[in-house]
Amino acid sequence: MVNFGYSNCKLTILLAHGMKIGDKHYRSLWLEEGETPQIRYIDQAVLPFRFETGTLHTPEDALLAITEMKVRGAPLIGAVAAGGIFLAAYRSAGKNHQETTVRKWAGKLKQARPTAVNLRVMVDRMADHVLNAFSPESPEERARKEYMKILEGETEACRMIGLHGLEILRDLHRKTGRTVNILTHCNAGWLACIDYGTATAPIYLAHERNIPVHVWVDETRPRNQGARLTAWELQQAGIPHTVITDNAGGHLMQKGCVDVVLVGSDCTTRNGDVANKIGTYLKALAARDNGIPFYVALPVSSIDREMENGVRNIPVEERSGEEVRLIEGLDGENLVRVSILSEEHPVSNPGFDVTPARLVTALITERGVCEATEGGIASLFTDP
Amino acid sequence: MVNFGYSNCKLTILLAHGMKIGDKHYRSLWLEEGETPQIRYIDQAVLPFRFETGTLHTPEDALLAITEMKVRGAPLIGAVAAGGIFLAAYRSAGKNHQETTVRKWAGKLKQARPTAVNLRVMVDRMADHVLNAFSPESPEERARKEYMKILEGETEACRMIGLHGLEILRDLHRKTGRTVNILTHCNAGWLACIDYGTATAPIYLAHERNIPVHVWVDETRPRNQGARLTAWELQQAGIPHTVITDNAGGHLMQKGCVDVVLVGSDCTTRNGDVANKIGTYLKALAARDNGIPFYVALPVSSIDREMENGVRNIPVEERSGEEVRLIEGLDGENLVRVSILSEEHPVSNPGFDVTPARLVTALITERGVCEATEGGIASLFTDP
Asked: Residues A46, A191: one domain?
């Protein structure tokens, strides 16, 4: 088993904040090599009620893990889809149909969820390496190496996002001299982003550096990734937090209980519009109305530099109404799924919304903090 | 049984929209006279999973029905609290302690829920009539008469709100020539407001007059009054509707799917700030950001003419975290309450938020439509 990274000194930070479950350290995704390589993941669909890991043997497993949201969060689904291409290349090794197989799965995996841009970027990157590289290595070996580079790259990106975002939290603490109250929506934590998280990375680092923080966690209907995943992560890390309904954030901002909003992103357009979990836009509006900074933390791989006007152009996934109708919880010791809304009522369930760039204070990326403008984003790609 | 109102021609309208449950017509609250008068109500805590009525025999029953939210919605809790005073007067009839009893329950009932202003207005009005009137009638008889006046007055107020609001929907339909898409939050329907509802009254009337309407129903966490009550009401009335999470409204507005937002109010201050169910403020912000009119429908009894600056001054009830942690639904045929969040996580659960007057297009009251300004509100009380 190559549970890579744990021997890497760069990763010692993460060991302090919530990756240790029981006696074991976990990433949200890792590669187990051996006779038949397989990809392991933490099953986010059953957390926090159960802690289970799953195994991807085939590209189809990867596709299903994404569509069934056993794995979720833009960076993670990009990495899982990339893993799907690795598995496609590996399982068709030495066969005539290897190229066709990789192309087929690249097409399928890119369609798995329409809003996230990393998914397409990572799949294309993998497919390019497998299909087009001039190298004495086999396609599957090229796939393996590129896949490991992707995992390491994403982890490092999150670590750098954390370091850049840390300065923002440190400044807020300096300014007020008291606990920094952060509001976050959905889960942009290490579960969603392999190791450090994007939006939560600065929070973990601040906590480690004894900057007092407290996190307002939006429960994030319909799938409650805030209540189920972010709250669980923060608790594992011993970070003070309070769970609230998605409705409560505006009121808390009016009452001066929020110093900064910090969220992730599934897709950011070249002009700085940001797609993130449905409801993010409402929090951005409330932050603006109350003079509270609203930051988006994201790896540059999630920026779509071709696309302008995200509000108009980012495709927003319409998900099943069952996610709204059914909710999972504990009835005594038993985990059950109960129906909270009769099937007689139609439901609409858009998965994301788009926050216009004008409401975004700045983007926090692994390459630094920039304005959510065309110029700001261009600077990420041109600065030395 | 005096199921008053059904013989009243003014009330024929309501019979068409959802008050008929099975073969029987219902109001959300009614008085049954007889040897021992009692107040009956529809139990909103078990809808839509069960349709049950409850009975108030004592002022304590009234208090519990309010605090346990078997009855909810500002106009309705005002009427139930008024009923509590009637029961206090009735049950202490002829006793020396009648005055003390009425005073004691007036104090308790006014504290039952801190945000709603009708509650205090209605209790004071009842207590004044019982304690201070110069009349040959007994205190309990005065209480009964005043209580019936309150019920009739609230019903008539809702009907007039409906008629005034109807013109707004009619104009929107004329302008676009297509279905009017209305977004509403929580339940300001007949369940909450005795007969017609406040925010829903114009919708019922428009539907009756063949103005095509479709309602986006915010589920309204934590107690899901939108999904549980508003959706149920609209379905009973055959009005097209779609249930959404509280997070989805901003996105729908960006996409041009919402023509108007229509909500109720628990307390409106003299300058036009509006307290309503938590999350309303976020929808008002989104409506403003997308150039969509945002109307608040309310009886004038819910205006606090003494209070200025609602954002600062309206007391917002902090409710139990259990409302967020536990959710009720059907597991097969069984209604169960499941835990969706472990007790290890702190929860904050403010019940209301305050929408600043500047975000409100207009107030729809039984006395007409007015600006959400000090002048607009004053005109309700001074115009001929």
From this structure: no
